[in-house]
Every structure is written in structure tokens, then in C-alpha cells.
Amino acid sequence: MPPVSLTRRGQVAAAAAVLGVVLGYAFGGRSLNAVVVPAVVLLAATRLYVARLPEPDVERVTPREGHQGERRTVELFVDAARSYPVTLRDKLGDGLRGENVHRAETDDRTVAYEITLAARGVHAVGPCFVTATDPFGLWTVEFTVTDPQGVTVFPRVHSLEDTAALLTGYVGITDEREQFAGVREYERGDPLRDVNWKASAKRPGGDLAVTEYVGEGATDRVTIAAEALGPRADSVAEAVASIATYLLDAGISVGVVIPEGKLDPAHGDPHRRRILGLLAEFEQGKLRHRYKEEAEIVVHAPESGQHVSVSVGDEDRRYEEFVGGPTRSRDTADAPGVVA
Amino acid sequence: VSAAGLRDRLAPNWRSLGTQDGLAAAAVAVVVAAYLTVLFEVVSVVGKTPSLVAVVAGAVALAAVLRALRWKYAVGLAAALLAVGLAVYLTAVPRAYYAAMSPSRVVQDTIALLTGYSVLRMPAAGTWAVAVAPAPTFLAAYFTARREYTRAAGIAAATLGFFVLTGDATMTVTLVGVLAAASAVAFATLAAHHASARQTQVVAAVLAVMIVGSATVTAVPGGASPLVPADTTSAAGSLVSAGGYIGVGGELRLDPQVQFVAESDQSTYYRAAVYDRFTGNGWVQTADVGGTETPPATGERIRQRITPKRTLDLVPAAPVPQTISGIDAELTAGGLIRGGPTLYPGDSYEVVSRAPPSDRSTLADETGDYPAAIRDQYLQLPESTSGQVVDLAGRITAEAESPYMQADAIERWLETNKRYSLDARNARGNLVNEFVLNREVGYCTYYASAMVVMLRSQGVPARFVVGFTDGQRVSEDEWVVRGVDSHAWVEVYVPDRGWVTFDPTPSSSRVSAEQERIRTARENGVEGVDAAGSENGTWTPPQTTTTTTTSANNTTTSGEDDSELPTAEEEFLGTVDDTPQVANITAPGQAGEGGASGPDRPSLPPLSTLAVWAVLLVGGAATLRFTGVADRAYRALWLRWLPDGDPREEVEAAFERVEYVLERRYRERKPGETIRDYVADVRPSEHAQRAAELRERARYAGEASGDDAAEAKRLARSLAAEYSRLPSLRR
User: Fold this and answer.
1) Contacts A–B by Cβ distance under 8 A
2) B283 SS3 class
3) What is the ipTM score, two decimals?
4) Fewest beta carbons less than 10 Å away: which of A93, A134, B84, B270?
């Protein structure tokens, strides 16, 4: 049985009783009996009420993930063998905001509350501290129930629709396959439809040749490297997330390399979530030079932290030049404007 | 934020403003009402009820308007209200009191209040009540409006606690306040938790236990049970006690034991305490009683040595003491002994007194003005004073031309129209109204209170005095004074002469009652009935010049009657010529309160007592409900009671009981499961199967004879009996 403690109002009641007895014996009874006895009875009866309270049973349903700035609902189911008033205090990780103190009764009810995903990262919801009390609120009993659960907060994703053309030239995102650029040797992974059979037949040794078109750039596989030397880690993460999302939407395999980890280029929703999950943990730090060299796109924030630049090939552009339109996160109310 | 989002955010607030909030707010209102009851009692005595109503309404309205204020400012505002109120109060208190004001004095007075100095004893108590009422009322209403019921209840309960400490809150009012404060806290908690009705049952049950506890357990001695209306019965063996308050009315059992022995030049009354404020059923001594200087006394000088035989809280002496020696006590400007020590057997002190002249010729023609201080203090009447009493007093004194003559007329009217008895019943309302208009019987406090009220209503300053009559004379200059000699009489202010003593109580009946008591005590062998040779009978002066009105049984004294003070009365009883006829004026009776307002008319107990009983009943019911006792009792009855009527209905009803027993014993019948299937599955006793069979036939074949019904009922009864014998807790 967890320890039972007297609340402030319980202390007031106890003090009134003691003071009543003292003043009553010192200066005459007056009506103090009608203060002292009810106060003592109240304290005793409520103490009895909280004695051997059955352990509360709390189950939590927490959202698994969401973008920074979004709001999600956490649900708590409370029940106990005997119903009594409780105060539920769900511990929220640093990056989560919300009213986490809720009063309820353990009569098989659901308490739902909203949390705002304030910062990127993996944050804990819980453990839940349950303070049981009597109906007068004079005594409390503390319980700790339900293990913490994690919420992954992805970076915000901005829409790059309007300025996407800027990227086209550098990474060759295009469906134009009319303009012939040349033929090169087949590499593993090249689609069969790109095999130039005529050219292959002409080649000695039976090696296959592949047609290259103008605008196709290096490949449809892109690796984005990112580092934030200064304080703009959030902006860098958002830039990487936005570019990656844009490219993935365009059907390109995207890989990401940041100081926290590396993901090889790939497609698909699970991969998209892996990228966002990796970016959730992105923090200020230096990336090894080799990774930056190998990547097609480098997102970079200098130590001074003035702006975020996106380097594609030899070109350096500011990220704010690409951003346009509303952000893609569902709840726009809390998202600050464009970050760059 | 979208409109829907806004609605979502507001909606919980609207929904949760439910019953429990309402109950919490109501409970806070009851706590506020509890302390306001005390304040209203104060103002009803000194006549400021409209002002108090106004400031309380104002405070509540202000709180409603300013509920959006930050709480720090609200508390500041309340403090300012209190400060302004107390400043206003200071302008209302007498000059002398104001001049003596200092921080240490304020602290002293506060400590005095907190250790049981009644608010009613303060000078300008009505102004004080009006001054202090708004601040806590505003704060309580403010916090209630903000749904901070716990804080509101705390403020109100603390204020009530103050009046508990001053001794002004009665047991029942205190209990009501405490219960209401507890329920305010509870309902606030439950409202915050959106708790279920089950928790409300717990609250009601705990409140009931609190009531039972406070009615049965005495943790702090003193005080009455909160379950019966407060009674102001004077339980003491003597009317004389320190404490600033004396209740009038109720049965009086005076102590036959000797209080003190006095050596005195002449027979006198011994004044012990003077009271100036009448509450309707008691007298209060305010702080500044006797503080006003009176004209120098010109009467005869009396020297007395008084030797207490028992513990005395007050210092009795003939009025008006001029010097006192032997004990440490001070004399006020008005000639009252103040601050005397508690006297123990063996102490002794000497007093020299000098009263105003007592002869009629000097006093009857005095018609000068009263000093303002005297008028302010000694014309107070409780608001409950009946207009009929005032009218009556006006008729009695219509032909009297001076204050002395007015007092004389009222004294004679009371003596002739009322009968003396110590067994007078108590009155719940204004005792003087009851006594003057309806009652025939009363004793000294009734007479004296009535006389003071009647005189004051005619603009004559008067006050209530408690002390001892002259007692039993045991030698030429020695008197033995007992508890039975304690008495109440009246002092009337005669302009330019001072306070003149009047005794409206018929002395002959009083004396015989006293002597009866002493004789019984002697027969029963009570200790301490005699001292200084009083058992040997009363010393009689060789040549007595007094008219003895005591008819029989003169074992002790004839000198009881020829005290110095009622000489005026005796002088005039024979001379009818120059005194107006007042004896025939009859009291009208309290027609205003419903013709049948006899003295024994049954009346409802006060609201606070009813409230306590109501909470007790509700709490008891909640306890039954919470523990399931009520449900079980109902089931037990239901199981045994089988309806009579149509045989088919009887069979069905009987089977309902059988099914109930089966369900408790085996398992619940599943929804959709037929009774036939159910019975087949649980395989009950043959009796139960037979009952099911009968029911099936009654229901589906429509066949049920009287015999079938009787059989079904018999089966049901036997099963119920069998079931209730089972040692099972699952019921």
C-alpha cells in the first residue's frame, strides 16, 4: 500500500481541530465542540476511505508519430475494483505540450486530452502518476501506473510545389525522354526499358548499352546529406524532410545521410517514415566530409546560423527560395511560417 | 482557431457546470449565512438590520461584477473594504474609547474577542457588524463566482470561526456552518473530478456521521447539543456570574448556600453587575457600561464589610461604591466596581457607598435633560420589541410627568398584574413581549427586563442590575446572603440625580419562595446553608416600624421586606391620591401573531436545527443506499411478499421470486435464453422446476387454478426461506 498523506486542506482541518481543543480548554468551550468533533470525524472517516484503496488500472492510447506542430489525442482508460476520485498526471516529454493533469473517477471511464507536438524527436508520454483521494480531498495516495510510451515527432514538411522547377535542373527530375543524350555501359539496377538494344548489338563482347536522355541527370537515386553547424537544426531538418518528400512524391529513390545516421536510397511509405524518423532525431553536428562529397544534395546551415543553404552540384541556393505554399502538416494553426 | 474548435474548448465548461457545482455554491452560501446569522442577531439587538442587509447585498453584487478581477486584487479590495469599515466604526465609538485607541489596545481587544468576549459587548456593536460584514462576504461571493468553492468556503468558515471564538455562534449554527463548509469542499472536489453519484453518497454519509459525532461526543466541554434548539435556561445556582451575559427566562434553581456575610450599617441590596444591552432573551454588558460619570450621590453614607463564604466572580456592594479597600479593584467613573479579583472564602473587603437620594419628594420633580452618553447607551431596544409593549408602556405612563413617576407607574403595573414564580417557562422569541403581553408568571429577571424595556420605549434611560437582596439579618449589623437571595432589579436614570433603584418584582412572593428553598435545603442537610449563626433565626429589631406583608411562615425574617430601597414603593402604596391608577390597564395580548398564541403554543425549531436534522436524514439514507442495506431490505421484503389477485398473475409473481433465488444461487439468465432452457441448464431443485412448470402453463396455456396459484406461492415461499438461510454473502 503506497503511503497516505494529508493534503493542505486536510492539514487545515487538523489544525482547526487541534486549535479548537486548545482554545476550548484554555478559554472556555463556547461552540468549539461543533468544530472539533466534526473535524476529527471528517479526518477519520476520510482516512478510512483511503485505507486499502485498490490499485487503479490505467491504460493509455498514445499516437505513435506526427509532424512537429501537430496536435494529437491521448486517451486514458481508468478503472479500479472500487471507484474513487483520482488525479491523473501523465508525464509529458520535453517536446510535448498539453494539459496533462486530469481529474476523474475510477469508474471505467475514458479521459482524452490533446497534446501539441512541439519539438522534433522521440518523446515519452508517461508514466502516469495517479493520485487517489477521498471525496473531500483531505488525504491522497500516490500510485504510478502504465509505462511510458514514445511519440516520434517528425520535422515539418513544407510544400515545394511552386519552386520545384529550381531543383529540376540539378537532379534531373523530369519525364522528358525525347532528347537523346548518349549511350553508356549498363550498370546493375538500370531498368531494362533503357537498354539500347541497337547499340548493344553493335558492341563487342555482348555488353549491354543503356540510353541516356537529357535532363535525367545522374540518376533517379538521390542522397541528401545534411548538417547544421549552427543553431538552425530545425530548419535544416525541415528542409531535408521537405526536399525528400518532394522527391519521393516524384518517384525518386531518396537516401539521407546526417550525423545521426544514414539511409540508403529507396522508395515507399515505410521508407518515407524511416527518413522522417531519422530526421526527427537530427541535431546540430558536423557530418563527415566524405558523405557530403558523395551526396547529390547537401543541406547545410553554417555556424553563424543565418540561413540554410541547399547545394546541388556546384550551385548554392538558399532554402527559402524553394519554399512556397502552405506546409503539408495538417494543422496549420500552430505552425510558424516558413522557416529558412 | 476554428469555430468548432472554440466550441469544443468551451463545451466542457458548460457541461461540467452541473449539479455538483450548484451544490458547492449553495453550501458556500450556507456557510456565509451561518456567520451572517450571528451578525444579524447583533444588529437586531441594536437596530441596524437595514444597513446590514444593504452592505451584504452590495458585497455580493460587487463580487458578481468584479468576478473577472485577478484574485490578488480581489483580496486587496476585501482588505480595503475591511479597513474602511473599521475606520467608519472608529468614528461611531464613544469619544473616550476612541481616545484610548492604540496598537496595543487593538491587539488586546482582538485577543479578548478571540478568547470569548462577545461581539455584543462591544460599544457600537451594530456599526461594527455592518463594518465587518462586507469584506468576507465579498470574498466568498467572488470565489464562488469564479468556481473556487474551496477558497470561498475557507474564507466563510474562517469568519464563522471568529464568531465561534467570540462565543456568539450557537452550537447549532456552528455545526451547520461546519457541515456546509465540508460539503462545499466535497462538492467542489467532486465537480472537478466529474464524480459519480456514488461519491455524493459517501459525502452525505460522512456528514451524517459528523452530526452524530458532535451530538454524542464531547471533545470540548461546554455547550449544548446541536440537535435540540438552544435554550437560555439559567442553570447556575446564582444569577450573579461574571461573563458579560445573562440569559433571562427558563427554570431557575437557585442555590440555598451562603454566598457571603455582610457587616453593614443598614439593610441594602448588593449590586454585583449592571447590564445595558437587551437581546430579547438575555442581557449583555457592553465594554463601556458605567463609564459615564453620574451626578454626585447625595444620599446616606453606608459602610460595609463583606466576607465571602464561597467563590465569587464578582464583587457585590451597595450602590454606589465610593471607596473600596481590602481587594484590588477599580471603580469606574459611573461608580461600578471593575476588574475585581475572584473572591475566595476567607477574603474580606470594605466598601463605602453613597446612593442617590431615595425620597420621592426629591426625585419626582426632576425633569431635566439626559446626558448624550446616557441616552446613547441606555435607550437601546431590540428590534423584536413588540409595538404593543411600547403602546402599553405609553398608556401606563400617560399621566406620569417625570422619569421617576413613569418608572413608578410601570413598577406598580408589573407588581399588580404579574404573578411571581420561579417555574416560569422559557420563551423562544422576545421574552419581554411574551411576559408583558401573554404570560402571567415570571420571576425577577422577567420583571426587571420588562420594566427596563418599557421605560426605554418611553425614552427613559434604564438598566438591568443583578446582585443580591439584603439576605437574612442575624444580628443588628450582620446579614447572611445566600444564592437564593440573588436577584435582578432596575436602575432608572433620574436627571441630575443619577441611577435610582427600582424593584418591580413583588417582594412577598419572592421572599416566601426563597425561604421555602432554604427550609427544604436545611431539611435535606445541604452543607453551607447557614453561617454566622443564621440557623438560630433572624434577629429582629426591638421596635420594628415596618409593615409586614409576608403573611405566613416567618421563620427567618420580616426584615426581608423593609429593605432600604423599596421605601418609596411602600410609602406610596397607601397614598392613592397623587399617583395615577395603572393597575387596571390590561395587556392586549399578542393578537398580531395569530389569535391562538398561548404560552404553550407549539412552534417549529429554528431553521439551523431543522437543517441539521435534514442533513442527518439525507446522510442516513445515503448510508443505507451506499452500503446496499436499503436494496437488500427491499429485496428481502419483496421476496416474502406475494401479491394476491388473478391466479395467473399470482403464479407469475411467485415464479419471479423463484427465478430471483435461482439467479442468485446459480447464474443469471442470459438475454434471449428461455426459462425452459435456463431451468434445464442449471438443474435446480424439484420445487423450482415445478414452479417453472406452473408458470409455463399459466402463461402459455392460460391454465392456472386457485390451487396452482397457492402451490406456486407455497413453492416460492419455501425457496425464499431456504435461500435466506444460506450462509451466503452474495445476497
Assistant:
1) 147
2) strand
3) 0.75
4) B84
